[in-house]
Amino acid sequence: MLRLFLPLIILVPVLLRAVFSPSRQVGPSYPVVRRPRHASPPRHASPPRRQARAVPSASARIPDYARFAEVSQEHGGRWEVAYAHGDECPYHARHRVSGDFVATRDLALLDRALRCYVVPPADRSVARCRRGQARFAALTWS
Q1: SS3 labels along 58-104
Q2: What domain of life (predicted)?
Q3: Is residue 68 part of a domain?
Q4: What is the rounded (10 degree) CA torsion for 4, 6, 11, 14?
Q5: Tally: H helices and E strands in the chain
Q6: Do residues 93 and 110 touch, judged by C-beta distance below 8 A?
Q7: What's the CA gap between 103 and 90, in Å, rounded?
Q8: pTM score > 0.85 for this model?
């Protein structure tokens, strides 16, 4: 009979200790300060700058902007395409490697020019000559 009650006699003190003992702290040992993600600035700070830009007037907008964006994205790998308000030739493009510059009045003409433009190959003999001169200068420097 003792065999039946022995587990119960051992279990009762264990349960009482678990219920009435202080709970362990779970988490970091250092204090955690919770702050809202967008905490308000101090009262003495100036108001935040406006982030939205004013909508430009109709005369300052790029005409047929959707087509301009297509041309810019299509040739964006080799050319920096831009629009300058008030210029005689407002559509500009500058080659990213050679620095060649193209300007036109018509967007279709700019697109055609950028498609047909072939950058001349670099003259390798000049580069070799300059490299040789630099080596010679480095060797004879005394």
Answers
A1: HHHCCCCHHHHHHHHHHHCCCEEEEECCCCCCCEEEEECCCCCEEEE
A2: Bacteria
A3: yes
A4: 180
A5: 4, 3
A6: yes
A7: 7
A8: no
Report pLDDT digits (tens) over 58-72.
777 888 899 999 999
Q: Is residue 91 part of a domain?
A: yes
pLDDT per position as a tens digit, 45-60: 676 677 777 776 777 7
Q: How many domains are contained in the chain? A: 1
* SS3 category, 141: coil
Confidence of residue 25 (pLDDT cuts 50, 70, 90): low
Q: Please name the helix (run of DSSP H) or strand (run of DSSP E) that holds residue 134, with its range, or none.
A: helix 124-140
The residue with tokens 């204090």 is 31
pLDDT tier at 129, thresholds 50, 70, 90? low
User: Average of pLDDT values for 104-111?
Assistant: 94
CA atoms within 13 A on the CB side of 34: 0
Task: Report yes or no on 27 lying in a domain.
Answer: no
